[in-house]
Amino acid sequence: MITLESFLVHKKLSVRNIKIEPKKVKAEYCVENFSGETQSIELIYSYDKPYFNPKLAKDVNLASNMLAQVALNYGLFFEIIEFDGLFDKADQRFILDMMENTSKEILTNKLLIKNEFLKPPFNTLEVQKQSVYTQSKIVFNNTRFSELKLEKVQEETDCNSYAILSSGGKDSLLTYGIVKEIGNPYPVYINESGRHWFTAVNAHRYFREIEPNTRKPWCNSDRVFNWMIKQFPFIKENYASIRADIYPIRLWTVSVFLFGTLPIVRANKMGNILIGDEYDTTVKGTTNGISHYNGLYDQSKYFDNALTRYYRNKGWQINQFSILRSLSEWLIMKILIKRYPELQKNQVSCHAAHEVDGRMYPCGKCEKCRRIIGILKSLNENPENCGYNQTQIKNGLKALESQSVKQIGSDASHLYHLLLSQNLIGKNEFTKKTAKEFPEITKLRFDKERSNLSDLPKYIRKPLFDILIQYADGAVLRKNKHWVDLKINNDFMNEYNYIIDEK
Prior knowledge:
Blueprint: E1 10-21, E2 24-32, E3 38-46, H1 57-68, E4 78-84, H2 89-111, E5 137-141, E6 158-166, H3 170-182, E7 184-189, H4 198-210, E8 218-219, H5 221-229, H6 254-267, E9 270-274, E10 285-287, E11 290-292, H7 301-314, E12 319-321, H8 329-339, H9 341-344, E13 354-356, E14 359-361, H10 367-378, H11 390-399, H12 409-421, H13 429-434, E15 444-446, H14 458-468, E16 475-479, E17 482-486, H15 490-494
Parallel strand pairs: 1-4, 4-5, 6-7, 6-9, 9-12, 15-16
Antiparallel strand pairs: 1-2, 2-3, 3-8, 10-11, 13-14, 16-17
């Protein structure tokens, strides 16, 4: 019988031997099995400018937290996880809380669902609700930096400067375009050493030419993640050849990149970190009585709010948020291509991008590709603008006639409604059943849960919505389980204490 304890496959994971150079930080990830044998790999972040002084406690502390993030994925699989570095109480509380949440997310969204990466019989796990899900004992040590004294200091920041976690996708491109009009943007492209970097190549090259604030740290997290997969006997040996839109086991990924931006943020005294997440990435679900965030926690508003609280507990005056939470994916695509067509030409939204003559192109076959093709065609725009050829466009539309897209129900249904009404896809049992008109998809949406005005800092609200409202068909507010019209005027945008409530 497979129980959760069956996944405790190793004795100890140690994040240790932290080394700090002006332009580089690294740590050893050491796995010890129950026979006492060890294997290890280094996790590395490197920069083109000096951001670290190994004699300063605040820099050692930041490096310790950066290098810890990958390990937060593995609280179900080791008896002990040890972090050897310089951590204060705020860091320890954050790591413990986020590891527990990630353990629950991995349990419900990797181990309790159909996951083609799991070997039998590990794919037969059944677990009910319990008080704690992390199985590892978490230990914090400081064997190398005991001479450093970490003090909490309130650090002032510039609320007009914005770090943008950038990937080459539509969300970060639109975020940059808007911020360039209203503030001082710093697009940060984390090169994580794997094929995921392919999606960012076109945009980064373009930004390197047009935006002097563009930054590109390097991190080998992708190699560490892949190395860790090989340590788990419950993952199929041929995992690399399995084509899927999910990772085999990890879910705490955005934070690995996010913490890589923090040296740049703090050195430039930036007051904002922007992550490009739209309306439908804040989702709650329940599996076997266990509540969770559908594997999207690090894309949700709860993640942003938790990080903002963490920064404040550290004395850093930094806000983390998304300026896209009121937008559907369809509306994001519309604003990007209508207002910033030069940016949109560098968009790559694909799980398997490839290189042709030095430029990256989408595969045209994955779920994300067919979704982007469908959205662009429904907007009467040409998907060739971001790398799709005519054959891929034709095949993508054909695939939409029988294969769904990863959107919340209303958004997917409205996309199919638009495609059918424009005769872009054929009518069949699947498309007719899926298609339904939801006019709120074309509007700015506000509600208590996913898109709450109070989650945005006061200083960005008016300039942001002055732009967004030009492309939306109005705005709506969720009240009593229904959408009601909402006026986006100066009174609304100047009411800085406005809190959306469903009552």
